[in-house]
Amino acid sequence: MQLEYKLKIEQPSNHLAHVTIKAKRPASESTLTFFLPSWSPGSYLMREYSRNIRWVKVLDAKGKRLFFDQTHKGQWKIDFEHPELKPSTDEFTVEYEIYCHELTVRTSHIDESHAFIHGPSVFMGVMGHEMLNPTLEIEFPALWSKVSTGLKDISEKREIFKYEAPDYDLFIDAPIEIGCHETDGFMAHGKPHELAFYGPTIKHPHNLKKDMQTIVEYTAELMGGVPYQDKYTFITHFLPGKFGGLEHCNSTALHFDSFKLNERKGYIRWIELVAHEYFHTWNVKRIRPKELGPFDYVNEGYTKMHWLTEGLTSFMDQLIVLRTDLVTLPEYAEMMKENFNAYFGTPGRRFHSLEDSSFNAWIKLYRPDENSKNSSVSYYLKGGLVFFGLNIMLAEKGKGIDDLLKLLWKRYLDNPAEGMTALEVYSMVEEIGGAEIRNKFESMITTTEEVDYETLCKQMGFEFVWTSEDDKAWLGTDCTFNGEQIIIDKVTLDSPAYKSGLNAGDEILAIDGMRILKPRYSELGKILQVDKPYVFTISRLDVLHTIEVIPGTEPRKLKEIKILDEGKAARVLLGKH
To answer: pTM of the full predicted structure?
Structure first.
């Protein structure tokens, strides 16, 4: 089937998009079911986009109403053989209105300043049918002047904005930015790369375009050229407090807090984000687990291989910014220190392997709660560290991550229609580094056994420097504040607070009868004594309780990753064996 879409935005202040889909009924079909996806590839949570639809109607070519019924969340079944509402022709139109007022990289947002259209959240498809060569016409207010998207522009006149894609998957994969945003671009590997910047940026000293081009050129060179045919589009929303990204086949949508661009750590986080989403152009959008495509947009797509999709990408984004000299080796060591501290501070690593974490993404990673760190581990975090460790082990054999990337990419090119299995990846590791490394790597993925990262780092010229504040009292609570009130947000597994029975949601009122408010809470580490009992007065569900708590000492953390052998570290990380 071919679908002709029209997106019309008349009053942006109402946050509504009007979508029209023109189609022709296949002669063999008496019914067709249209659906709106429940989730987006790359973001593993059932977001139930159909909750934003206000109304749906179906008409034949002469404007006569056709019979349809909603049969499931996000699904509408058209009955062309209904005795009272038969169509006069095979051509018909589906129309609906959808509310768009959630600004993330995985949802759509329309207001007076712009429209950001995330395809899965707006455009219906047809169940059980190939939807080849869909087209899209966009109509928007006269005060807006630009459309930025990875869709192919087939407009014949400047006044009409019309686009197409090879199929439905690629159609909804390409986000669309509409408005008066700033645009720029550069050429790399013979292809244009469009930059679309929405939102205010505070003055900063960086050349965003130059650094983004550096990342693109290096990554494409590393992977043997760009895999997209026409162009690549970076859509960035610069807004306070925002952070995130979502990968697409020939584009990406990024969110970043422009206030952070003046901080060195903030800017590093920005270029990491760019490198992360751009590397996904190869890893995930092409190299992928077999479960991730063809997509079932209605049901969850379970895989145990997010250590490949996001773990490898998390390792590579930091490696790319190091290899392009956008960060120094000491800065890279500092980034790794933060990764390790986050990992060692996650008790859930004792219960969930990387396979477990991957499979449960739908109910854990994308639905974090007070107990998340106690029960699971991020496959971004642990996966990145596993590939960091693998690269060190391979370096001992004169190999490295580059060799694995070549095999992964060759596998994709040999069979692009079918994703790969974990066994294939393990076999590649064995081909490069031998059976012993393969077994160690597989164990890192499939078990919860601790990895001796300290010894691995010594092998590449890094040394762990630990700190332990034995004289500073530690409770093991993370708190939020409501004015001056102290509310426990999280309790660390096996911490003093955990053992005493303090709960997330408890309000700390007093210690040994003395009132505790926000300013005093930050001093508790110095006020309280280790191994001495204290009576905490708390409010739990508006009922007062007293609980005895005995503070302990905070688990040791990495103070520094010291570079003992810069040459060896550079050889391992830069691939110069």
So the answer is: 0.96
